Here is the input.
Amino acid sequence: MPTTKTERLDIKASDDVVRVRQLTRAYALEVGLSLVDQTKVITASSELARNTLDYGGGGEVTVELVEQGGRRGVRLTFDDKGPGIVDIEQALKDGFTSGKGMGLGLGGAKRLCNDFSIASKPGEGTKVMIARWK
Amino acid sequence: MAGQAGSDIASLVSRNEATILPEWLELQKKAGTLHTGRISEGELQSQSKNFLHLLRDALAQGGSDVSNGAYEPAKAMLAELSRSRASQGFSPSETASFVFSLKQPLFNALNRDKSLSGEQIASTIWTTTVLLDELGLFTLEIFQKSREEVIIRQQREIAELSTPVVKLWDGILALPLIGTLDSQRTQVVMENLLQTIVDVEAEIAIIDITGVPMVDTLTAQHLLKTVAAARLMGADCLISGIRPQIAQTMVHLGVELNVISKSSLADAFAVALRQTGRAVVKTKRIDGAAVPDKKIGRQEA
Here is the structure.
């Protein structure tokens, strides 16, 4: 999958979540996503960025403009070196949270995007990838 | 050695002040300090003269060690200058060039001085460079700090300004929210609303989110908590202004707001009026005055 543009951001404080959203918005606009799709991917980025911060203890995000078979899209990869997720299936379930949130963020982000993948090893960290195509 | 070099430069400055000052001013003007019109030539002149004197005194008393107490007056003056330039909108390099542009006139004066040996000149140039670099960096640091102060002040202002709770009618409040609600600001907004509910004994509070670009789970959670708190205080909440794209996103997220929501503030206000036993009646306009038309009709008949 060729990447035409890429940017990396640290997620270390709640201000950074705002920056992730702004960057996602800029990329979504460049891809030409509709207003609804923009809002969806921005909301998903906000959820995952906050997860990276709150549960992963901070990390980074890579935002990419990708192309595949003539379609353009925006792809985000969140990476943290936190405690990891023991039971991914349970984490994706609506209403489950190990913190104080609503327990909808991870599953919600999956529903808001076209592509979703998650890899996590307890003690090593978590990597979540989402993509939204035009 | 350092002390000796310091007093050497001090005497050099006082002997050559008549040439150093105009040269320095000329350089600052060339660098464009006056172009923007943010400070006058007279101001620049007095600042430059003032600093040159303070520097000379500091050199004479404290040698070339910037951390020496003798440098305090000079540093205080630089800090003041840096702060005022930061607030006047000068760029960092424009601000720092005040100090750095002093190098050339000083070096020129050194080179013209016939009484010094080549070795002396070299070592004095080095001392001067180190000294002015340190003072220049000090200026930049203060500049940076005052910029940060400005940002922090603005953040506080935004937090306070953007949270007005509006009284629409007796017992009906509206809270028009603007921006994303995941920051500390949300806390201020919600506290404001709950306090105003107490103050005006409101029955209904309308939370309008027309100005909110995105609702994620944290935002939704904040909203729900506020609604719950308001309920405990005997006020019902209505939510208005959920835009189509936000509605769709919320459905995908799986967030449910268990409150009455309306697409516009006007609709929500109408609901609030109904719930408090009031109605808005349309009237016929007669010569600009609004009078119930049916009543008039009957009286005339």
